[in-house]
Design a protein that fits this description.
This protein is of the alpha/beta class. It contains 8 helices and 7 strands, in the order E-H-E-H-E-H-E-H-E-H-E-H-H-H-E. The longest helix is centred in the middle third of the chain and has 29 residues.
């Protein structure tokens, strides 16, 4: 198992991406600490992990609140002895489907502000614990819009680019302490409800069906398909594992070749 003996905190653990990653981490031997806003949803993911032979805990945590984050991490350290992996997958609350000139500044800034606040708070809080052990992995996730601009995506692509920039900064400062920082960049998984909703907005704007929109996106990839949640989760496992020990300050391309680095 690639993550045996690792303690992993996943913010947004009840979401589509967070849940998929949590299950994969549990399958690979990590003790998973699910953090999110809705305990019932977190407990459902926890039950899945335990039913598959894994170990997991769930707690209500506001990933936009410093005190909530730090209090939870202290409890994780008390229970598990340390933090090996931190992955923030929370929804950014982005507003898409309209051109910038028709958006309010509040709608444009919403995903950018949320992205920077939550990634900074969770990343820096985890890093302070990891520095003591001189090891750890901080993960984040973005989308292809952070590299390739799309009309009517609002502040989402800008937020993704900002997350990637923050990850590079974290990597530069935390590398001497033995901490790696890696960002996963997906082109969106159509089996994730949030991605499907965004695709529907863009499909309506383009006057085509949701199926046609998925086919259009897939056609722009080298593999002629979009990554599923399982693809993203497997990439997260690899980047969090010791097999990726030489990888930091990087954006792992999980776009099925929509972006070519």
């Amino acid at each position: 198992m690639l993550l045996e003996g690792k303690n992993a905190v996943i913010y947004g653990g009840a979401g589509a991406i967070g849940g998929a990653v949590a299950r994969a981490f549990g399958r690979e031997g990590a003790k998973v600490f699910l953090a999110g806003r809705t305990l019932a949803k977190l407990e459902a993911i926890r039950a899945d992990i335990i039913a598959s032979g894994g170990v997991a805990e769930a707690a209500v945590v506001d990933a936009l609140d410093k005190q909530s984050i730090e209090s939870h991490l202290r409890e994780v350290v008390r229970i598990a002895g340390g933090i090996d992996i931190s992955f923030n997958t929370i929804d950014l609350g982005d507003a898409q489907g309209a051109p910038l000139v028709e958006m309010t500044d509040e709608h444009f800034m919403l995903p950018i502000g949320n992205a920077m606040k939550t990634q900074f708070l969770t990343g820096s809080a985890a890093a302070r614990h990891m520095i003591e052990k001189r090891s750890g992995v901080i993960l984040a996730i973005t989308a292809q819009a952070g590299r390739k601009p799309y009309p009517n995506s609002g502040g989402f692509g800008v937020a993704c680019a900002a997350i990637e920039g923050l990850c590079r900064q974290f990597a530069a400062e935390l590398g001497p302490h033995g901490i790696r920082v890696v960002c996963l960049r997906s082109s969106g998984s159509p089996d994730a409800p949030g991605v499907l909703a965004a695709m529907r907005l863009h499909a309506e704007s383009a006057g085509i069906s949701i199926e046609a929109m998925e086919a259009r996106i897939a056609e722009n990839t080298l593999l002629k398909r979009m990554p599923r949640l399982s693809d993203v989760a497997n990439a997260a496992v690899l980047m969090a594992s010791n097999h990726a020990n030489a990888i930091t300050g990087a954006v792992a391309n999980v776009t099925c070749g929509e972006i070519v680095d």
